[in-house]
């Protein structure tokens, strides 16, 4: 009698192919790496298009590389890729990968939701970009492709919402014993604030996109057809929505600064509050309102009641977020002053990014004052560039800082430092000339056929150089990261002498993050432990 | 390597329930934003003379009639769904599989009834999607509401399969699905009032 054994012998089960592991994994570290990796690819694509757009603006007499039909779409694709293809996935991906480690959790809450969210985001972004390439997107000539673009943005945003739900749930439910919300690391806190604000603001964009999609597909009666797409949904690619995406970047800075400063964070409670009040910009985003301040020169006291009625919402929705960002800057500066900072790439990237975010938020306030006369001008693009490039720069610093926990290896500090300086120069060149050109009435959204006062070619050439430098910086950083993470110096478990729980596990962490769950007695458990140990040794 | 003191096994912190509450927050702003846009369009519509109601906003075309019995039944049906969903939670807490199964079944059945009533409303109203602003926005907002209802039915089915399949200790999914039905009832009340009552 012949018998066939259909069972594998113990331990000889065939391992699934690596691609299948990447696609099906719900391990938060894997999902975070996927988000960050695709975010870097999206960043490169967005920057290439941004360079193209900036180059076209140099000569306002006509197009050099693009044509009238494609200019609007390339402009839209650049913003879409930089906002939803780079900043959002980079920062959210780092939150997915690092926050559970900071919380002392064995995994992310609702991990399959986060993984599903990643694939949904990627599919939606792919559909939106493909539709733009095929003459869709805002102002596109192919009605089917405009429909596909709108559908893509709905799917993409839904994916981000799923992942944000998972991150926020993690911070609320998986903290280590003893870790109250005000003992959570600042990055984890910022991930909570950023995720919740995203849950409040992004669905409004989804709802608008649903209206636009149904209306464009069937009637084009309510929202202005393909041209109306930018008018109704363009706010998600501008300020103050970009503030919301930048909130986790502020938390990253607040975690990196004390470790690099070799001291405790100054004014910790103030830092929690500062991050919280940046989220007030959500209100401005959800209401889709650009708050303006009609000042009318010297006539303020002629109609003081009405002016104050305008000032109150403006102050609440536009100025208060700046106070939050300034609070983060002040806390960071004070911490560095109190400590003995080491000049390392994470710190330089983080502080450069923070400074440019502050510049962008402050410039947005200026842009919201009617009498400044920059509404509808390219000034808004300068503001956008400062916040977006600032967020990306902080993300580079975070990748240098948390790289050991993502890949087990360190990015070379010596090689990364020049890139951090280059990023600052690139952001300054990419944003400030646009702000100046805005005061000279260069219109937003136009790549040719415009005229304005001033040395037009100079400002637009400087901006093009800034974008090209940022592209070079990003290429250099990605090459450096790829080299370091494949063959770089192996990192120890705690290479930066960290203060929070992610540095208490191995680099990279095992599948379930920690061998034992720990009891936490303060916001900086490792720092306390090291201080106690040093005290005993002494 | 330094080590922190080990913790005892941490109590479960209702991840599915908290996650559902956050998803409900997102869905609230989704529908809230859509209703706000709807109200803005209606407020911006020109005035016209109505033979029955005098001077009104020219928003919903005069010839379109809302089947009020069906739309009112949707609202009542959702209230019943909440009771059924809460019954499922009550029975599940007492490990009463028979009553829990019955409650899950009735929850899904009443949910399907509401979806059916929505489809009936669409066919009875005879709104052609390509006729104008009201028409496309009507389908966008009621379609989104229906999609959320279908998600509720699927959520209930998942909770039922998990509980009846033997995971009787994991009550969190059951209470999370009930929470979602409460949200759906509140959300539909707003949609019902703005779209079908105020018109």
Your description of this structure?
The complex is a heterodimer of chains A (538) and B (199). In chain A, 58% of the residues are buried. Chain A has 538 residues and is an all-alpha fold. Residues 1-11 of chain A have low confidence and may be disordered. Chain A has helices at residues 18-24, 28-58, 68-103, 111-133, 143-173, 186-218, 225-233, 241-261, 268-278, 281-286, 304-338, 345-367, 379-407, 413-439, 456-487, 525-537. Chain A has a single domain (26-537), classed as Cytochrome C Oxidase, Chain A (Up-down Bundle). Chain B is mostly helical and 199 residues long. Chain B has one domain: Up-down Bundle (Four Helix Bundle (Hemerythrin (Met), subunit A)). Helix content of chain B is 72%, strand content 4%. Chain B has a two-stranded antiparallel sheet. In chain B, α2 runs antiparallel to α3 (97-125), α2 (68-93) runs antiparallel to α5 and α3 runs antiparallel to α4. Chain B starts with 14 loop residues before the first helix and ends with a helix. The chains are: A mainly alpha (538), B mainly alpha (199).
Strand order of the largest sheet of chain B: 1-2
Radius of gyration of chain A: 24 Å
Sketch the major β-sheet of chain A. Answer: none
Helix/strand-derived class of chain A? mainly alpha
User: What sequence of helices (H) and strands (E) makes up the elements of chain A?
Assistant: HHHHHHHHHHHHHHHH
In whole angstroms, the N-to-C terminal distance of chain A is 76 Å
Beta-strand content bin of chain A: under 5%
What structural class do the secondary elements of chain B suggest? mainly alpha
Indicate the mean pLDDT of chain A.
89
* CATH-defined superfamily of chain B: Cytochrome c oxidase, subunit III, four-helix bundle
CATH class of chain A: Mainly Alpha
Give the C-level CATH assignment of chain B: Mainly Alpha
Q: Tally the helices of chain B: what do you get?
A: 5
Helix content of chain B: over 70%
Assess the beta-strand content of chain B as a share of residues.
under 5%
The CATH homologous superfamily name of chain A equals Cytochrome c oxidase-like, subunit I domain
Label the overall shape of chain B: elongated
Low-confidence stretches of chain A: 1-11
Report low-confidence residues of chain B grouped into runs of 5 or more. Answer: none
- Which fold name corresponds to the CATH topology of chain B? Four Helix Bundle (Hemerythrin (Met), subunit A)
Oligomer: heterodimer
């Amino acid at each position: 009698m012949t018998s066939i054994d259909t069972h594998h012998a113990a331990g000889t089960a065939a391992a699934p192919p690596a691609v299948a592991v990447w696609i099906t994994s719900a391990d938060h570290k894997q999902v975070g790496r996927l988000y960050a990796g695709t975010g870097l690819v999206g960043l490169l694509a967005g920057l290439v298009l941004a360079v193209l757009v900036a180059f076209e603006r140099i000569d306002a007499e006509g197009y050099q590389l693009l044509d009238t039909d494609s200019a609007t779409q390339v402009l839209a694709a650049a913003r879409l890729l930089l906002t939803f293809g780079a900043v959002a996935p980079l920062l959210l991906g780092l939150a997915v990968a690092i926050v559970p480690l900071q919380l002392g959790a064995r995994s992310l809450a609702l991990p399959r939701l986060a993984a599903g969210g990643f694939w949904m985001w990627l599919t939606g972004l792919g559909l939106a970009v493909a539709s733009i390439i095929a003459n869709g997107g805002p102002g596109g000539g192919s009605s089917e492709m405009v429909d596909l673009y709108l559908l893509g943005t709905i799917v993409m945003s839904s994916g981000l919402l799923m992942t944000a739900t998972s991150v926020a749930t993690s911070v609320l439910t998986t903290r280590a014993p003893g870790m109250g919300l005000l003992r959570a690391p600042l990055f984890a806190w910022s991930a909570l604030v950023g995720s919740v604000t995203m849950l409040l603001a992004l669905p409004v964009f989804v709802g608008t996109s649903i209206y636009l999609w149904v209306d464009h597909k069937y009637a084009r009666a309510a929202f202005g057809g393909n041209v109306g797409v930018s008018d109704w949904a363009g706010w998600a690619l501008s300020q103050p929505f970009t503030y919301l995406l930048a909130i986790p970047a502020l938390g990253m800075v607040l975690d990196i600064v004390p470790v690099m400063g070799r001291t405790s964070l100054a004014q910790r409670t103030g830092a929690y509050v500062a991050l919280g009040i940046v989220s007030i910009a959500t209100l401005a985003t959800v209401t889709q309102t650009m708050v303006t301040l009609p000042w009318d020169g010297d006539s303020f006291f002629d109609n003081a009641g009405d002016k104050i009625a305008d000032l109150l919402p403006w102050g609440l929705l536009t100025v208060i977020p700046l106070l939050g960002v300034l609070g983060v800057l002040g806390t960071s500066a004070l911490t560095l002053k109190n400590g003995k900072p080491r000049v390392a790439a994470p710190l330089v990237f983080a502080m450069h990014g923070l400074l440019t975010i502050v510049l962008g938020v402050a410039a947005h306030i200026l842009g919201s004052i009617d009498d400044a006369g920059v509404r509808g001008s390219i000034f808004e693009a300068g503001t956008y560039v400062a916040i977006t490039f600032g967020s990306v720069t902080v993300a580079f610093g975070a990748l240098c800082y948390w790289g050991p926990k993502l890949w087990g290896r360190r990015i070379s500090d010596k090689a990364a430092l020049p890139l951090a300086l280059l990023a600052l120069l690139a952001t300054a060149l990419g944003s400030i000339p646009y702000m100046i050109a805005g005061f000279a009435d260069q219109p937003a959204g136009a790549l040719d056929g415009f005229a304005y006062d001033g040395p037009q070619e100079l400002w637009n050439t400087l901006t093009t150089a800034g974008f090209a430098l940022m592209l070079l910086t990003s290429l250099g950083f990605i090459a450096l990261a790829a080299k370091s993470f494949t063959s770089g110096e192996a990192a120890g478990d705690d290479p930066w002498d960290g203060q929070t729980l992610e540095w208490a596990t191995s680099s990279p962490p095992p599948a379930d993050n920690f061998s034992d769950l720990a009891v936490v007695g303060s916001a900086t458990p490792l720092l306390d432990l090291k201080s106690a140990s040093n005290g005993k040794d002494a | 390597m330094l080590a922190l003191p080990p913790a005892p096994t941490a109590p479960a912190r209702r991840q599915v329930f908290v996650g559902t509450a956050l998803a409900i927050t997102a869905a609230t702003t989704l529908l809230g934003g859509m209703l706000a846009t709807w109200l803005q369009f209606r407020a911006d519509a020109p005035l016209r003379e109505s033979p029955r109601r005098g001077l009104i906003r020219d928003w919903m075309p005069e010839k379109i009639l809302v089947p009020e019995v069906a739309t009112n039944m949707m609202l009542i049906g959702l209230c019943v769904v909440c009771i059924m969903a809460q019954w499922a939670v009550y029975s599940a807490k007492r490990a009463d599989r028979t009553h829990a199964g019955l409650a899950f079944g009735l929850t899904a059945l009443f949910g399907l009834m509401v979806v059916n009533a929505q489809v009936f409303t669409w066919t009875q109203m005879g709104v052609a999607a390509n006729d104008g602003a009201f028409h496309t926005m009507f389908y966008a907002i009621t379609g989104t509401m229906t999609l959320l209802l279908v998600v509720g039915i699927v959520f209930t089915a998942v909770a039922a399969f998990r509980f009846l399949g033997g995971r009787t200790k994991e009550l969190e999914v059951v209470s999370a699905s009930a929470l979602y039905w409460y949200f759906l009832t509140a959300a539909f009340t707003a949609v019902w009032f703005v779209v079908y009552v105020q018109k």
